[in-house]
Structures are given as C-alpha cells and as structure tokens.
Specification:
The chain has 596 residues and is of the alpha+beta class. Helix content is 57%, strand content 11%. Bound molecules: flavin-adenine dinucleotide.
Length: 596
C-alpha cells in the first residue's frame, strides 16, 4: 500500500533545530516566522497533501491524462482537487505579496513542496511549473506584463509552462528553431514545434501562460541567439478578461513510463502572439531564472518520492511475515517473524532513511541560503548565500533525484515480488521517480555544471561557503565528547572531496574531457560529504538534547543512530569515488566508437 504521513517531526527538526529558527527570523520580513506560526502551516499542508492529493495518486497513474481534439482531460478528481488546493491558498504560498502572494520564505515552501511531491508527483508539476514561470516573469518581464499575468498566476487561476525542448534539441538548446517575428505593435508572432511540454494543455485553469524560447530574425546562431517570449493560450483583454484563442495548440500528449497524470504535451505555435521577456537574444539568462528554481524543485521531487517509498517499505516490513530472526525468534505466537527483523531489510530501510533525512537537511540548508540571498541587508552575506545556492543547485537536483529513484527501487525490493506487481503501488514510485533524473537538465548535465561552471567560478569563490564552515566544524568538534568519534571518519571523507576538487581543477585546466569524465562521481562525492556534515550537525543537536533531558528521547536516539549509520555505512563510499575520479578518462575513452 502507498503510505504517506508528512514527516512533520523531522521537518520541524531541520527547520527549527538544525538550520535554526533564528537564522530565519533574523531576516527582514521573516521576523514573525517562529515555530508558533510555521508549524500550523506545515500541519495544514500535511492534511491537504495526505487527504486531498495522496488519494488521487493511484487514480492518476491508472487513468492518466486523455487527449481529444486539442483538449487534455486530467484524471478523475484532479480538477476538483486543484480547485480546493488553489482556494486554500497553496499556489501563492511563497510568492510576493506585491502580486497577491503570502510571501513565505523558501525555508517553509520547500517543506510544503516536499509533501506535495510525496503525495502526488504528477499533481505537483502543475503548480510547480507555474511557480517557475512566475519567477522568470517577475524578474525579467516588463511592468505591464507583470501586472496582467502575475496576479492570476499567483492566485492559481492561470498556470505556467516552460517551452524549451524541440524534437531535434533537448540538452543542446543552441539548435532550437522556433521563430519569433516582430510586429508593429511591439508583439511577436511565434512559429514552431515544441515537445515534452509539461502542463502544456489541461483542464484545471482558465488560461495557460507559456514561456517559449525562440529566435528573432537574424539572431546569432547557438545559445547567444535565443530570446524568451510569453505566449498565452488565450489573449488577454486590457481589462484582464480573456479574449480570442491564441495560435498555441496542443497536438498530442506522450504516453510514458510514469507521472501519467501530468500532461506531457506536443505544442504547435502557429503565428501565436507573444511578448518579449527580458532582452533580445538574452533569453537563456531569463530562462535560467526559471530553470534554477525548477532544478531545486525537481530535487525536492526526488526527496518526496523517496520519503513516500521509505514509509511504504517500513509499513510492509513490519507486516510481512517471513523467516525467523537470526538473533532468536521475536514473535513465537506468529507463523514467522516480520521481515523487519532481518539485517538485510534493516540495512535497506536505514539506507533509505539516512539518505532521506540527510537530503531533507540539505534542501533546508539551501532554502535558508535562498532566503538569505533574497532578503538579507548585508551585501557580503547575500553574496555568499547566492554563491552557495549556485554551487548547490546541481548537487540538489542530481543527488536528490538519484536517491529518490534508488529509494523507490529499494522499496520495491523490500516488497519482493509484491513490489514488482501493481497491487501495492510501490512500483509507481519507481516509475514516477525516474523522470526527475532526466528533465530540467539530465543529471549528467548537472554534474558538468558543477565541475565546469560552479567549481572554478571566480577562482573557486562558490566553494568557500561550503568548505569553510565544514573545515571549521571539524576543527571545533574533533575532540567533542559526544560526536568526536564520528568526526574523525568524516574528516577522511571531507579530505577525499578536497583532493578530488584539487585534482579536477588541475587536470581539467589542461583537458576539459578529464573534468567531464570525473563529473558524475564528483557530484556524488560532493553530495555524500555535504550530507555527512549535516548528519554530524544533526547528531550534535540530538546529543545535546538527550544530555539535557527530553521527553522525545526516542526521536533524538533515532537521529543519533541514523547519523552513525550514515557515517559508518554510506560515507565510506567517498574513497572509491575518489579512486574513480583519479583514474581519469583513459579507460572510458580508449575504445573506438565502432567497438561499442
Ligand atoms: C515527462 C517529461 C516532461 C518534460 N517536461 C518538459 C517541459 O516542461 N519543458 C521542456 O522544455 N522540456 C521538458 N522535457 C524535456 C526534458 O527537459 C529533456 O528530455 C531533457 O532535457 C533531455 O533532452 P533530450 O531528451 O533531448 O535528451 P538529449 O539532449 O538528446 O540527451 C540524451 C543523452 O545524452 C546526454 N548528453 C547530451 N548532451 C551531452 C553533453 N554535452 N555532455 C554529456 N552528455 C550529454 C544526456 O545527458 C542524455 O543522457 C520533459 C521531458 C519529459 C520526458
């Protein structure tokens, strides 16, 4: 059975105890965000996601979306759920009050996003893409466009899309062919075909606001000649009411492995009227505002599915009776012991749990830095927060989605054959999670972004807000009575990351193929070391609470146990990753293409 209860206790732990309430309430506009205010929001989000969205997850997977004559019907219950979701104010949570939003920080929003993705990944894409489009319009569009489009998008009456991909161009957007021809009134006529457009057409909103990448006449070739346009499904009258249908049509939807309730649309733009967003030929810059928001959000998709998969696996492991505990029979009254007694099942569950809680802590850290970059009055602090967010965006996107899929696969394993068949719903998690490793730039491309753009940027400046606090923490805690024993092995993992960074910087300068060959292992190493640091800090908080005396001893003991598991059983993967990185490109590049 798919099981999901929002992990509210752990969410409160990362928000208030690990990242720290004060680091949020000290930011302008967040002064009132004490636990008394944020906890009821998280509790309400838990209710909405568990009661409204989770029950539609299997229905969405079974029915999928239906395309008929240019119209897309979402599965039974989706439209009503979206209306309730919108009426509850969940589409406007983190948007600026200037545009009708509630102005909550990302530190809270990312936790709510995790719940939505865990409950129903397909559903999450509709408000998720609208949020990304909101950011691109807010930062790059003219005041007039903002006035027309942002309020109904924030209110959830209109949704947004991101139209990049064309049949011949996915990763390499420099190849794109969609054209934009300027008109005398300042608008543009857009013509071209896009594929794989999430939420390109559906029945849950009154209007759809497409953000479309296209080329102006005589634009330079490659990515330097791409501009961004806002193209609504329905043109908007000056009074804000909807006018004529624009030439932006869905010509079909894809039939796919997972997220079947998310409409993945083929779009045809035929002299569709659009408006420039940002400067001509600088469309990639504007689109990156949306893509960076989306990359972090996609990372959280992986975390959400990974958590739901973990919970489903735990509930089955406690129920399923097979074999007897090697440590002595645990339930003599039953025909067999539940499988949770077996070390291999416990290894699997601990691995999933250690990844999930670590990934949640990483997402929370990045969210807090996003809020700092957005709101701090200290320019130096803002800069370091921006650097950190830029550095961690590819890590969050790729690590959290890889882990989401690995966890979904482990959940299937815990269910055995009953996981592989459809009845229990865990194979849906596996199918749904797979896409997050592909869209918003494949995980291989995220790794290239980390080594190619982020690692060496400004002489390594982006690395500092990560490396410095970690090094200081190791120094300050290596002899700590409570966590010192975990710090020593962690320092080895951190050392491996330092060595790998130096190695790639050196060999990559001479030969970029060497850096590219090391990229995926480097990103995983980076992720493991980042999570290890957060596990040490979590252990420190937990140990202090236990030492001081608490009525939540079981929770903090579990934190300590999981921290130890991560440091002893997952962090050691740092050594083979470093070995792979140092081995270099030779063995993978040696064979002729024809030999494959
Ligand atoms: C369900 C779904 C929803 C989607 N939603 C949207 C959406 O809303 N909007 C949108 O615009 N697009 C969307 N996409 C498209 C998605 O972003 C692309 O599929 C993705 O970016 C990869 O492009 P591609 O499929 O053309 O693969 P390709 O670019 O052809 O890549 C194929 C493989 O080659 C690798 N590769 C390519 N170039 C390099 C390189 N330089 N170095 C190393 N490896 C490389 C890739 O990592 C990948 O493994 C969606 C796709 C799907 C399936």
């Amino acid at each position: 059975m798919q099981t999901y209860q929002a992990p509210l206790r752990d969410m409160r732990f990362v928000l208030h105890e690990l990242i720290g309430t004060e680091s949020l309430t000290s930011l302008p506009g967040c002064e009132e965000l004490t636990p008394e205010l944020t906890d009821p929001i998280l509790e309400e989000a838990a209710k909405v996601t568990q009661e409204l969205l989770a029950p539609l997850n299997v229905i969405g997977d079974t029915e999928g979306c239906v395309y008929e004559n240019g119209v897309v019907r979402t599965p039974t219950g989706f439209k009503a759920a979206y209306q309730a979701f919108r009426d509850g104010g969940w589409t406007s949570l983190a948007q600026s009050p200037e545009w009708g939003g509630q102005g909550l920080p990302e530190s809270v929003n990312k936790l709510v996003e995790e719940m939505i993705c865990a409950a129903n990944l397909s559903f999450s894409l509709y408000p998720g893409l609208t949020q990304g489009a909101y950011h691109a319009i807010r930062h790059h569009a003219t005041e007039e466009l903002k006035q027309i489009y942002l309020p109904p998008m924030v209110a959830g009456q209109w949704s947004g899309t991101m139209n990049l991909t064309e049949p011949h161009c996915g990763t390499d957007l420099g190849l794109l062919r969609t054209k934009a021809v300027p008109q005398a009134d300042g608008s543009y006529l857009i013509t071209g075909n896009k594929i794989f457009i999430s939420a390109g057409e559906h029945d849950m909103v009154d209007n759809i606001v497409h953000l479309v990448l296209a080329r102006l006449p005589d634009a330079p070739s490659g990515v330097k000649g791409i501009s961004l346009f806002l193209v609504p499904k329905y043109l908007v009258n000056p009074d804000g009411s909807l006018g004529a249908r624009n030439g932006a049509n869905c010509t079909g939807i894809e039939h796919k492995l997972g997220i079947k309730a998310s409409a993945t649309c083929q779009m045809s733009f035929d002299d569709a009227r659009g408006w420039l967003v940002g400067e001509p030929n600088k469309g990639m810059r504007a689109m990156f505002t949306m893509m960076n928001t989306e990359r972090l959000a996609v990372g959280v998709q992986g975390l959400g599915v990974g958590e739901a998969a973990y919970q489903s696996a735990v509930s089955y492991a406690k129920e399923r009776l097979q074999g007897r505990s090697l440590g002595g029979v645990k339930h003599p009254d039953r025909a067999a012991d539940p499988i949770i007694v077996h070390p291999d099942i416990r290894r699997t569950l601990m691995t999933m749990r250690a990844w999930n809680e670590g990934c949640r802590a990483l997402a929370a850290w990045v969210a807090r830095e996003m809020d700092t970059a957005d709101r701090s009055t200290d320019p130096e602090r803002r800069q370091s927060a921006e650097d950190f967010t830029a550095l961690m965006t590819p890590v969050v996107k790729a690590l959290l989605t890889d882990i989401g899929f690995e966890n979904a696969s482990q959940a299937v394993q815990v269910y055995g054959g009953h996981g592989y068949i459809r009845d229990h719903g865990v194979e849906q998690y596996l199918r749904d999670a797979r896409i997050a490793m592909i869209y918003e730039g494949t995980n291989g491309i995220q790794a290239l972004d980390l080594v190619g753009r982020k690692m060496g940027a400004h002489m390594g400046r982006f690395l500092r807000p990560f490396f410095h606090p970690v090094a200081e923490f190791i120094e300050a805690n290596k002899d700590d009575a409570q966590i010192g024993a975990l710090v020593a092995p962690y320092a080895k993992g951190f050392g491996a990351l330092q060595l790998a960074t130096g190695h790639i910087a050196q060999v990559g300068l001479k030969d970029p193929e060497e850096a590219a060959a090391a990229a995926t292992e480097y990103l995983r190493l980076f992720g493991i070391v980042a999570l290890g640091y957060l596990w040490l800090r979590s252990a420190k908080v937990a140990a202090a609470k236990l030492a001081a005396g608490t009525d939540e001893a079981a929770f903090y003991q579990a934190k300590l146990s999981t921290a130890r598991f991560f440091i002893e059983r997952i962090l050691p993967q740092a050594a083979p990753l470093l070995a792979g990185i140092k081995a270099g490109k030779a063995s993978m590049m040696a064979m002729e293409d024809a030999a494959f």
